[in-house]
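Data deposition worksheet. Section B asks for the primary sequence of the deposited chain exactly as it was used as input, without tags or linkers unless they were present during the calculation. Section C holds the resulting structure in token form. Section D is free text for depositor observations; keep each observation to a single sentence. Incomplete worksheets are returned to the depositor.
Section A, Depositor: J.P.
Section B:
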Amino acid sequence: HICCCCCCKKTMSMYIRIKRKKQTLFVHCEPSELILDIKEKISKFTQLPSLKVRLLSEDGSILNEKESLAQQSVVNDQEIHMVFQQKDGSFEKPAVEKPKLPFEEN
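Section C:
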């Protein structure tokens, strides 16, 4: 049975790409999950409390941890930037390094 109705799409799982510098985490999630839930998943890998992690959309806006992925229009395979809180309490600037292809010049 193939279903094309919108009710099925609400429960479809997805993944997002969380990027920081040269690191990429592929996180399996549901559109209904809160950003806070995603930050807690990330904490298992980073060994940092979720309070010290901030997630940003590709345009640099901070994702609200009290809202779901769907509420913030995050879609499947979207790139999300991750920044960490520094010792002085500020958050680092987003830095995502694109991989160089073998034929590209230095």
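Section D:
Strands lie at 14-20, 23-29, 53-56, 79-84.
The radius of gyration is 16 Å.
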